[in-house]
Amino acid sequence: LRKANLALADLSEANLKGANLSEANLSGANLSGANLSQANLSGANLTGANLQEANLTQATLKKILLQQANLQNAQLSKSDLHYANLYQADLSGANLLEADLQDANLSQAKLLGAGLLLSYLTKANLSGANFSGANLIGANLSGANLSGANLIGAIMPNGKIFDSSTMGLYNGS
Known about the structure:
The protein is mostly loops. It has a single domain (1-173), classed as E3 ubiquitin-protein ligase SopA (Pectate Lyase C-like, 3 Solenoid).
């Protein structure tokens, strides 16, 4: 399925475990509830796709395009999202345990109540993202751009809940 054109396809509940979908066009596709664990989607285009409650555990998602995608309650633990573009994506309630989001673009993304425990957000663009109620315990935010991000109620890497009295760029303390 490498480089396949599956734009607007209905793949809801599909079992694509371990599939090679690298550089595929899945823009606008419905992958809700699909099993994409251990799949390779590097360089794929999933702009505007529906991945609600999809399983992307240990998936390779390097340089993937997920702008404005719906990833609500998706399982992304231990997935590789290096350089992924998640601009305005909805990751509310998603599980990103130990996910690698280094250099990823999550600007204006929704991460309400998302689990980002032990995730790597090094040098990620998180500007304007909404992390309300998200769990960032143990997450690495070094070099991340948090300008304009909403962190109210988020549990920060040090275990403290972020509130308006600690506004400003996160410094790790």
